[in-house]
Amino acid sequence: METISENKNGAKQSRFLKWALVIGIVIVFNLLVNYAVSLVYKAPESPYMTQAQVVDNYTTKEDCLAVGGQWSDQRSVPTKMTPPAPAQEVTGYCDPYFTKNKEFEAAQKVYQRNVFIILVVAGVLALVASAFLPLEVLVLGFSWGGVISLVIASVRYWSTADNLIKVLILAGALGALIWVAIKKFRD
C-alpha cells in the first residue's frame, strides 16, 4: 500500500516515488562515475587481446626466450608433423606471453589502485555533499550513492590491496560515515 504525505506546500508526495528517486540517484551516480573513469582513464590492454590469429610454436629454449617467453624443460609427447616431414620431438614447453603477462599484471595493479582512489574520492565527495543538500531525497540519494561508490571501489581493489591498505580503506570509510552522521544528526 502506498502512503501519501503532504510537503510544506501542501503537495502530495508518494513514499514510493521518493524511494524510486533515491534508488535512481544511487544507480545513476555510480554509473556516471564508473563510466566517466573508463572513458577518461583507459585500462591496460591484456596481451591476449592482441594475440595473432596464427600462433608460432616455439620448439627451442632460445627461440622462446628471444620473444620474452618462459621455457619449461618438461618433456612432452613428440609432435606429429604432416608427411613428408619427420616427427620432431619437442623437449619442453614455451609460454610466449610470460613477460607480457608480468608487465600487464603490474600495469593492472597500478590501474586498479588509481581507479580505487578515484572511486573513493567520488564516494566521499558524495557523502560530504549529502550533508549540505536541502532535500531529504537528495540527501538519501547522494549519501547512499557515496556508500555504494566506496563499496564498489573496495570490491574492485580488495584482492590487490595489502592488509595495511585494507585497514586504511575501512578506517577512512568509517570516518567519512561518522562525520556525515554527526553533521546531519547532531540535533
Descriptive notes:
With 187 residues, the protein is mainly alpha-helical. It folds into two domains: 15-46 and 99-185, no CATH class; 52-96, no CATH class. Helices cover 59% and strands 6% of the residues. The chain contains five helices and four strands. The protein has helices at 15-40, 61-66, 98-130, 136-157, 163-185, and strands at 4-6, 12-14, 70-72, 93-95. The strands form two sheets. The protein has a two-stranded antiparallel sheet. Strands 3-4 form a two-stranded antiparallel sheet. A hairpin with a 5-residue loop joins strand 1 and strand 2. Helix 1 packs across helix 4 and helix 3 runs antiparallel to helix 4 (136-157). The longest helix has 33 residues, at 98-130. The model has no long low-confidence stretch (mean pLDDT 82).
Mean pLDDT value: 82
- Helix fraction bin: 55-70%
Low-confidence stretches: none
Strand content: 5-15%
Query: How many structural domains?
Result: 2
Inertia-based shape: elongated
The total count of strands amounts to 4
Helix and strand arrangement:
Blueprint: E1 4-6, E2 12-14, H1 15-40, H2 61-66, E3 70-72, E4 93-95, H3 98-130, H4 136-157, H5 163-185
Antiparallel strand pairs: 1-2, 3-4
Q: Key terms for this structure?
A:
mainly alpha; elongated; 187 residues; 2 domains
